[in-house]
Prior knowledge:
By secondary structure, the protein is α+β, with helices and mostly antiparallel strands. The chain has one domain (7-69): Alpha-Beta Plaits. It is 24% helix and 38% strand. The protein has helices spanning 19-22, 46-58, and strands at 7-14, 29-33, 36-43, 63-68. A four-stranded antiparallel sheet has the order 2-3-1-4, covered by helices on one side. The longest helix is centred in the last third of the chain and has 13 residues, at 46-58. The protein starts with 6 loop residues before the first strand and ends with a strand.
Amino acid sequence: xxxxxxxxxxFTIDGELSERALAAFPELTGDHTHGTTVLxxxxxxxxxxxxxxxxxxxxxxxxxxxxxxxx
Length: 71
């Protein structure tokens, strides 16, 4: 069985998320920049990425950009 190593990802969301909305992403840090919110942090596998995207979708938010950050 292969050990998964967490990789860092960044999700740029349209709009400035409230503290309550940010609480839906405890594993990520959030920063507001010019009308957007940037969530970033470690994600261990594709299922984790889909989980973050599902929470974004459930909150009715729009992803502007998603990218893997360099190690």
